[in-house]
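Entry 14. Ran structure prediction on the chain below.
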Amino acid sequence: MNSSLMGRIGEIHTLSNQAIEEAKRRLDSLTKPPGSLGKLEELAARLAGITGETLPSFPNRAVVVMAGDHGVCEEGVSAFPAEVTQQMVLNFLNGGAAVNVLSRLAEADVLCVDIGVNGEINHPDLIKRKIRYGTANMAAGPAMSREEAEAAILAGAQVVKEAVARGTKLFVTGEMGIGNTTASSAVMSALTGITPLESVGRGTGLNDERLRHKAVIVQRAIELNRPDADDPVDVLAKVGGLELAGLTGVILQAAANRCPVVIDGFISSAAALIAVRIAPEVREYMIASHVSEEQGHALLLRELGLVPMLDLGMRLGEGTGGVLALHLIDAACRIPAEMATFESAGISGADEGLQ
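Output, C-alpha cells:
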C-alpha cells in the first residue's frame, strides 16, 4: 500500500460480516427457495457488507466521467482525432451523450471532470480539476511525473469526498479520452506481464494493420520507460493517463467512505487494477458491471477476480455499462426490502414443502 497516498484518502475497512449475515438471513426468510435469485442475492449481501446496512438503498448515485487527453495519439493509435475529447466533454455537459441518456433512465447524476483535457472548456456544470493539458507521448518518454499522477489520484478522491458530502452513496466510473485504450493496455501489460498482443484491442475501431501498430507502440512505451510492476503509481505515471489516475482516486475514496463503486469497461478496469495494487482491500467494494468487446477486458477482469453482471457486446466507455448495471443493483436492494417473508405472507416454508 502507498501509505502516504492512502493517508490522505483514508482507511479502507473490511466488509461488515454482521451486515452480510443479517442480509443472508433476511434473504432466506423471503417467499422463495433459498438462493433461487442467484447473483442478485449475492449482490444484496455484498452491498450490505459494503455499507454496513442490512437493507441498503442508493437513491443518490453518480457516474464520474473523468476526461483527459493522451500525447500518444501522436503515434496514430486512434481512429478519431484528439480534439474529439474536448467535443465529447461538451456533449456530456449538454446532456447529449449515451451516458447521459442511460443515466437519466437510471436516475443517476453525471459528474463530468476535466482532469487533463488539452484545451479550455467553460461550462457551469464542468468540474475543473486539470492537472496538465494532456499527458506527454509515452512512446517518447514518461506520460507524466509521479507528482502529477499522485495529484490526479487525489483530485479524483476529492470529487468523491464532495459528492458524499452532498449525499451520494454509490459511484460509477466513467471516462473520456481519445487514446485511453492505448494507455490502459500499457498499464495492464506493465502490471500483469500480459503481452500487448493480448492487452491491445481495436479501441475506436482500428483495422488489423493499425491494431498491430498500436501493440508495437505499447511495447515500445513499456521498453522505453521501464515501469516498475511493484509500484503502481510508477506504472501510472510512465504509461498511464490522467483520467486513469482520477478514476483510481474515485475508486479508493469511494471505498474509504463505504460506498460501492461500479466499474465500467476496459479503461475503468485498468484504473481498478491500479487501485487494487495500491490498496488490495479496495477490491471488495468493486462491482463489475459488464465485460466489453475490447480484447483485454475479460483478461483484466480475471486478473481483478471480478465477475461481470452483463455481457452486451458494448465498447463505448463513458460509464454506459456501469449505469446499466444500476438497474440490477436496484433490484438487489428492493428484493429484500419489499418482498414478503414466509411468516408475513402466511406461506409454509421450505421445511414444509416449498421447493
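The chain has a mean pLDDT of 96. Will compare against last week's run tomorrow.
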